[in-house]
Design a protein that fits this description.
The chain is an alpha+beta fold and about 160 residues long. The protein is built from four helices and seven strands, in the order H-E-H-E-H-E-E-E-E-E-H. Strands 1, 2, 3, 4, 5, 6 and 7 form a seven-stranded mixed beta sheet that branches. The longest helix is centred in the first third of the chain and has 12 residues.
Length: about 160
Amino acid sequence: MYLWWVPSSRDPPDGDRSMNTPVVLMEITRLSTDKNEGAEGLLGGPGNPRQGSTDNDEILIELVKALFPRKPYCLVEDWTIFNVEVTEGELQKVHAAGKLPLVLFAHNVRFDSERRFDVGDWVRSTMAMSFQDGFLFETWNTVYVLVGPGCEKSASLETIFSYF
């Protein structure tokens, strides 16, 4: 999982790059709700409803440990899976790299096995390697366990990464 940060004059003086700074949280909220700024269709529109797991966290943790031993995992809710719009040639390259044209964004981290994210942080993945049972979203570095309701949308990779 890679998250990028562009330093700005609004960064806290102590160099804290936490994703839960007031400026970042305000921007995420704006992008999630301001339909006049291009968010509609990305985070502003309804998308196609999907259902993640309804099991409790303990069951999900045991399941992901059994299916993906030695791989970090992250339980998330309030999530969106983006189907990346690619050409046939781009799709062949994505598949040749062992990936699927899917990217996950979640508004709320419930638990991260490696403590890379705090509870309540947002997260955006890299492209998926697998997507199993409608709630196990695997990337190179992490298995994301999708909990509760979410949605699915289509967008260009450029659009997806321009917001986050």
